[in-house]
């Protein structure tokens, strides 16, 4: 279980006392910017994190309770989705971070409806859709402003 907690808390970031989800999102966005991985690899990593994250969330929910706050792998997976197919610039990555956090915190419909899904997939899905929405906002902005 120790290894699962280490992974689910994104190497301990989930234990941070203030805004662990925001910190995990910020750390992964910095790593993504520095690594500059291609979109196919990002998609594969995000999918792997999503499915393994759902399993880990189930395990942690049984041990700690529903939607454990120390579990931040959902943010990590979703942030990867937020930057997919965007220009790899600091501006776009910071905008992806900002929009993702806005969607994740405010949870407008239909994101809010996914919180009713019980189990690890419920933990993962609302963040995944927040990442998709952040990405769509930026893709639409790129199209409108020809960026």
Give a concise summary:
This protein is mainly alpha-helical.
Description:
By secondary structure, the protein is an all-alpha fold. It has one domain. 70% of the residues lie in helices and 0% in strands. It has six helices and no strands. Helix 4 packs across helix 5. It is globular.
What are the key terms here?
147 residues; mainly alpha; 6 helices
**Overall form:** globular
Helix and strand run: HHHHHH
Describe the biggest sheet?
none
**Total domain modules:** 1
Could you state the oligomeric state of the chains shown? single chain
Task: Give the count of helical stretches.
Answer: 6
Average of the residue pLDDT scores: 94
Radius of gyration: 15 Å
- Class by alpha and beta content: mainly alpha
| Low-confidence segments | none
Distance between the termini: 46 Å
Q: Beta fraction of the residues? A: under 5%
Roughly how much helix do the residues carry, as a percent range? over 70%
Number of strands: 0
Map the helices and strands:
Elements: H1 2-8, H2 20-35, H3 39-64, H4 73-83, H5 90-106, H6 120-145
Helix pairs in contact: 2-4, 2-5, 3-4, 3-6, 4-5, 4-6, 5-6
């Amino acid at each position: 279980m120790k290894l699962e907690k280490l992974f689910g808390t994104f190497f301990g970031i989930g234990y941070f006392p203030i805004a662990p989800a925001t910190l995990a999102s910020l750390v992964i966005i910095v790593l993504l910017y520095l690594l500059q991985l291609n979109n196919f690899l990002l998609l594969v990593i995000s999918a792997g994190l999503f499915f393994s994250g759902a399993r880990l969330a189930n395990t942690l929910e049984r041990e700690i309770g529903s939607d454990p706050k120390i579990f931040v792998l959902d943010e990590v997976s979703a942030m990867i989705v937020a930057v997919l197919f965007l220009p790899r610039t600091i501006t776009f990555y910071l905008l992806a971070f900002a929009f993702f956090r806005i969607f994740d915190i405010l949870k407008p419909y239909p994101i809010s409806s996914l919180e009713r899904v019980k189990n690890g997939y419920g933990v993962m899905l609302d963040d995944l859709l927040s990442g998709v929405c952040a990405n769509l906002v930026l893709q639409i902005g790129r199209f409108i402003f020809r960026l």
